[in-house]
């Protein structure tokens, strides 16, 4: 028995067979043209995207800087030490 007969059937297909694309090429080209010509970033297109992408991270950064600054001030002035 030749060794090639032991291989699964997925290896017996010719490598020249081309798999059909999931979407038609015309639709892909249409979507590419649309997304390449937009002026705003794609992740800021929705109504509430500015809140989730800009406002929440800015608020987290501002509160972190405030807490770090308060901690440094308290440590340098000896406030809140346990006896």
How would you sum up this structure, described in words?
- The protein is mainly alpha-helical.
- The chain is 49% helix and 0% strand.
- It contains two helices and no strands.
- The chain has helices at residues 25-36, 49-77.
- It is elongated and about 80 Å long.
- The protein starts with 24 loop residues before the first helix and ends in a 6-residue tail after the last helix.
Task: Spell out the blueprint of helices and strands.
Layout: H1 25-36, H2 49-77
Structure described in brief:
By secondary structure, the protein is mainly α. The chain has helices spanning 25-36, 49-77.
Oligomer: single chain
Shape: elongated
Helix content: 40-55%
How are helices and strands ordered from N to C? HH
**Binned strand content:** under 5%
Q: Mind describing the biggest β-sheet?
A: none
Pfam families: COX7a (PF02238)
GO cellular component, one term: mitochondrial inner membrane
Subcellular location: Mitochondrion inner membrane
Protein name: COX VIIa-like protein
């Amino acid at each position: 028995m030749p060794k090639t007969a032991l291989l699964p059937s997925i290896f017996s297909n010719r490598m020249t067979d081309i798999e059909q694309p999931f979407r038609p090429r015309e639709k892909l080209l249409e979507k590419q043209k649309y997304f390449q010509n937009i002026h705003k970033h794609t992740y800021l297109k929705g109504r509430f995207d500015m809140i989730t992408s800009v406002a929440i991270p800015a608020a987290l950064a501002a509160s972190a800087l405030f807490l770090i600054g308060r901690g440094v001030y308290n440590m340098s002035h000896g406030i809140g030490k346990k006896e």
